[in-house]
């Protein structure tokens, strides 16, 4: 067996590792590399292997830096199976299409710019059609089910506790008389992530491939996060304000919806309307709703008492939530006077409907902008966290 590390080594995006075994080539992940536009385009387009020679892909989870370049792989001739959990498959189905939409939109922007400057325009890295076609190759499986990957290679998925459907991949590899157990952690979550089960220990591992992005942080205890969350909501409601929550569409949005539901049911916050305002967030929540097999014991408990639509539903009578795809419905939120929670994307406040909600609400000091996720440098979200009083561009 030989392993080539072809991405996510010394940087944090574009995960992919190629295993050569018994004459087969098995690819772990096919992530998209993010960086400066042209460099990223070149690195994503020029795969460091022949896509037609890959016998199988095994995917740990749906995040774009792990799955995002699968449409390119397929467009360049890959024609075999992509093994992942069922929830990862369903999340990829919406996330890869969203990624294709972004590629097409960026290419269109660059085409217009190139037309003015006479430069050569870039084609999109991949199209919606590429993203749709690669989905036919996905094989969704349950946790703890052994599956055949390639000659002498069998796989099993274990809980990774990172995002819905995320898995630690264990490959059992037989080469002649030799047996090797290889574990690939993908991104490993921590204990007590809302909704998800804790990461599962895997045993008797000979080779371990692990990636670490935030290895230097200690997470706050969940009880503390819940108490702070309730406190912020209660203080805002008492002054008749609105709570605006920028959140990533996949993962963070559902965690916030779930926490609000729990706090409402337990009487720690009053019942106020909650709006999830982003088409991608609404689609992602539907995937969460259909995969109760990924829930932990607490989420299951809430799911049982919450009525027919479960923890994300609005039929329980105890929780008042509305999901908004339509732009006109989104605009109507501006006219609301009563306390409510608006959860929207993008998570770092760079694009999307969250910008309108910030614009419409930030100047009213009854309102709260609640930051629940990581904000990268040079984003509007980071400037909000740092209480910057005005745009740096305007300061002289
Ligand atoms: Zn991830």
Which key features would you list for this structure?
single chain, alpha/beta, Rossmann fold, six-stranded mixed β-sheet, five-stranded mixed β-sheet, 12 helices, globular, binds zinc ion
Architecture overview:
- This protein has twelve helices and 16 strands.
- It is an alpha/beta fold.
- It has helices at residues 37-45, 64-67, 70-75, 86-117, 128-134, 222-238, 252-265, 279-290, 297-305, 327-332, 354-361, 380-385; strands spanning 2-7, 16-21, 24-28, 56-58, 81-85, 138-141, 147-150, 153-159, 167-175, 178-184, 207-209, 243-246, 274-277, 321-324, 341-344, 368-369.
- The strands form three sheets. The protein has a six-stranded mixed β-sheet.
- A hairpin with a 2-residue loop joins strand 9 and strand 10 (178-184).
- It binds zinc ion.
- Zinc ion (ZN) binds at residues 61, 63, 66, 162, 187.
């Amino acid at each position: 067996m030989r392993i080539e590390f072809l991405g996510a080594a010394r940087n944090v995006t574009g995960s992919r590792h190629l295993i050569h075994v018994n004459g087969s080539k098995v690819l772990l992940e096919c992530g998209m590399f993010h960086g400066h536009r042209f460099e990223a385009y070149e690195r994503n387009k020029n795969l460091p292997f022949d896509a037609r020679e890959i016998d199988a892909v095994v995917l740990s989870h749906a995040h774009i830096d792990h799955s995002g370049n699968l449409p390119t792989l397929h467009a360049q001739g890959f024609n075999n199976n992509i093994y992942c959990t069922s929830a990862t498959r369903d999340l990829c189905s919406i996330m890869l299409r969203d990624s294709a939409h972004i590629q097409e939109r960026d290419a269109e922007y660059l085409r217009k710019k190139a037309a003015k400057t006479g430069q050569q325009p870039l084609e999109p890295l991949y199209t919606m059609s590429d993203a749709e076609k690669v989905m036919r190759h996905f094989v969704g499986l349950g946790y703890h089910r052994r599956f055949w990957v390639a000659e002498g290679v069998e796989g099993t998925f274990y809980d990774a506790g990172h995002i819905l459907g995320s898995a630690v991949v264990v490959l059992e590899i037989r080469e002649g008389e030799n047996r090797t157990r290889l574990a690939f952690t993908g991104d490993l979550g921590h204990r007590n992530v809302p909704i998800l089960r804790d990461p599962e220990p895997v045993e008797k591992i000979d080779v371990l491939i692990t990636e670490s992005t935030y290895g230097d942080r200690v997470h706050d205890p969940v009880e503390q996060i819940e108490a702070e969350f309730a406190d912020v909501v209660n203080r805002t409601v008492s002054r008749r304000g609105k709570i605006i929550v920028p959140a990533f569409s996949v993962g963070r949005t559902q965690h916030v919806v779930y926490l609000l539901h729990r706090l409402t049911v337990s009487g720690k916050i009053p019942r106020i309307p909650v709006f999830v305002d982003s088409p991608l967030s609404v689609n992602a929540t539907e995937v969460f709703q259909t995969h109760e097999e990924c829930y932990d014991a607490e989420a299951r408990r809430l799911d049982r008492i919450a009525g027919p639509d479960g923890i994300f539903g609005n039929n329980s009578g105890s929780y008042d939530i509305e999901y908004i795809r339509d732009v006109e419905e989104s605009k109507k939120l501006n006219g609301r006077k009563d306390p409510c929670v608006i959860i929207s994307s993008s998570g770092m406040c760079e694009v999307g409907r969250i910008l309108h909600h910030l614009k419409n609400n930030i100047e009213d000091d009854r309102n709260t902008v609640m930051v629940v996720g990581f904000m990268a440098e040079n984003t509007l979200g980071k400037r909000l966290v740092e209480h910057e009083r005005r745009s740096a561009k305007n300061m002289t």
